[in-house]
């Protein structure tokens, strides 16, 4: 018997999926970085950081843009906090400018600099928003760079002293601290490829910088534990690369292993697993003497327990062997340069995965975030995770009616938050999500040409205009559940 198609008097609506609800107490936030938003680079005793010097060096930043004004968050923070409250944000992740707090990187703190962060955190708390402080987001005081920078061991010791000063001043207000943001970028883009400040291009120095950044984290954890209440939570934010081999050929798998070693395990090894991996040392032993670089006790100090691990994710990394023996980073999502940011893996080719890309030319792939979360959770059971950065740049424009519509960003965020939710359902302990970024801002060597913000900044006037993605994110935050993109 053949059944005729069933008919109805009206079209059936598509079946709605059950709401993707996040765990109770999930931290919903947004993030910024001091040099990208604060401006006021010469006020209240602040001295130049490496990013002041780098951005004022001709040819380093697109169109000669600098962070001198940025989005003037230093003067407009109350307006910005009010916008956060309108979005319903539960937390704000900001970074402290080391040069504002300790201008030479040595000696006592500058109270005028600390006062800005006291005012900021007080304003956040008054609006029911948790302050989340990052001690270092790439803006090393220039005097410390002149003394050797991160390749010098002394810089790690200075960082521990700075951490203690910040904790003593703000520990009564800030309960969640991140030591470093993306130390891979500080080490390998700052000292390897030179596309970030301070613009040096020595692969050996990049490896030394990585170790000393790790050690700085360890020194900071000890200093923070000594100065903060027992209830304070400590974290580090890593941009772990979700590395994928182009094929299952042994050579391509080994290319992925090399990138994983110098992109990920150079940090997670000592931080989470007791020490630097043997294959990393073998890959890079022609550049540095690891036995001399790593002093007795360093790895134990670096591996001091933390309360949360921050993950920053934007796009996966697809690699293969360079068949002709010459590597290439034209499709490296971290920026191309004639100098490789991958010591020990210079002969690896980077590929652009198929599909849509952001304005940065980065592949849009939420599965990379899901894989990163679940793989990290399996590698370190019991360590809670935070997504401390995730977002996308698109070519946002201000419409004639004064609005900014960014459906591509909404789609990006929806896909990636769905990936976070799926990872939680599959057992990962993810405690929060911080959108990058709250505001359009100074996007490092791209200047003001790339917009990541949920809030549009009209740079000539500094007017803030929430984009449609801000309204979408607010709905998600308030419901503690993923809003549909078209709602």
Automatic annotation (TrEMBL):
Record-linked SUPFAM superfamilies: (Trans)glycosidases
Binding site for substrate: 36, 137, 181, 314, 436, 443-444
GO molecular-function term, one example from the UniProt record: beta-glucosidase activity
Protein's UniProt keywords contain Metal-binding: no
Domain of life, source organism: Bacteria
Region (Disordered): 1-23
GO cellular component term of the entry, any: cytosol
Reaction catalysed by this enzyme: Hydrolysis of terminal, non-reducing beta-D-glucosyl residues with release of beta-D-glucose
Keyword Magnesium listed: no
GO BP terms in the entry: cellulose catabolic process
Keyword field: Carbohydrate metabolism, Cellulose degradation, Glycosidase, Hydrolase, Polysaccharide degradation
Active-site residues, as the UniProt record annotates them: 182, 389
EC numbers, comma separated: 3.2.1.21
Any matching Pfam family: Glyco_hydro_1
UniProt record similarity statement: Belongs to the glycosyl hydrolase 1 family.
Name the record gives this protein: Beta-glucosidase
Source species of the chain: Kitasatospora viridis
């Amino acid at each position: 018997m053949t059944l005729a198609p069933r008919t109805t008097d009206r079209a059936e609506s598509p079946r709605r999926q059950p709401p993707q609800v996040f765990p109770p107490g999930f931290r919903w936030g947004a993030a910024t970085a001091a040099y990208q938003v604060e401006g006021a680079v010469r006020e209240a005793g602040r001295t130049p950081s490496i990013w002041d010097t780098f951005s004022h060096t001709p040819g380093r930043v697109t169109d000669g843009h600098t962070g001198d004004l940025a989005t003037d968050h230093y003067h407009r923070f109350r307006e910005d906090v009010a916008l956060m409250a309108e979005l319903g944000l539960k937390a704000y992740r900001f970074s402290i400018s080391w040069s504002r707090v300790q201008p030479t990187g040595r000696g006592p703190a500058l109270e005028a600099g600390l006062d800005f962060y006291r005012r900021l955190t007080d304003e956040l708390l008054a609006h029911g928003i948790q302050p989340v402080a990052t001690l270092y987001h790439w803006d090393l005081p220039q005097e410390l760079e002149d003394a050797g920078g991160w390749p010098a061991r002394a810089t790690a010791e200075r960082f521990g002293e700075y951490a203690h000063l910040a904790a003593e001043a703000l520990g009564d207000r800030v309960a969640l601290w991140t030591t470093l943001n993306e130390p891979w970028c500080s080490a390998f883009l700052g000292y390897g490829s030179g596309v970030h400040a301070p613009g040096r291009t020595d692969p050996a120095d990049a490896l030394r910088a990585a170790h000393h950044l790790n050690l700085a984290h360890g020194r900071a954890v000890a200093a923070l534990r000594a100065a903060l209440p027992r209830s304070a939570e400590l974290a580090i934010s890593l941009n772990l690369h979700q590395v994928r081999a182009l094929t299952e050929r042994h050579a391509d798998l080994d290319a992925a292993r090399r990138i994983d070693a110098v992109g990920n395990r150079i940090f997670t090894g000592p931080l989470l697993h007791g020490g630097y991996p043997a294959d990393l040392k073998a890959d890079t032993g022609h550049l540095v003497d690891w036995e001399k670089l790593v002093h007795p006790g360093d790895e134990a100090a670096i591996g001091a327990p933390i309360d949360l691990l921050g993950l920053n994710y934007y796009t996966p990394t697809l690699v293969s062997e360079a068949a002709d023996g010459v590597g290439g980073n034209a499709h490296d999502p971290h920026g191309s340069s004639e100098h490789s940011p991958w010591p020990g893996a210079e002969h690896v080719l980077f590929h652009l995965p198929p599909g849509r890309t952001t304005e940065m030319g980065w592949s849009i792939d939420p599965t990379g975030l899901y894989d990163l979360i679940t793989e990290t959770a399996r590698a370190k059971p019991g360590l809670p995770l935070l997504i401390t950065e995730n977002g996308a740049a698109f070519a946002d424009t201000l419409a004639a009616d004064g609005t900014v519509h960014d459906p591509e960003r909404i789609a990006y965020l929806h896909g990636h938050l769905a990936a976070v939710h799926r990872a939680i359902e599959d057992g990962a302990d993810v405690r929060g999500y911080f959108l990058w970024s709250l505001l359009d801002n100074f996007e490092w060597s791209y200047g003001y040409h790339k917009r990541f913000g949920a809030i549009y900044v009209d740079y000539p006037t500094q007017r803030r205009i929430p984009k449609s993605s801000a309204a979408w994110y607010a709905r998600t935050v308030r419901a503690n559940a993923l809003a549909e993109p078209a709602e």
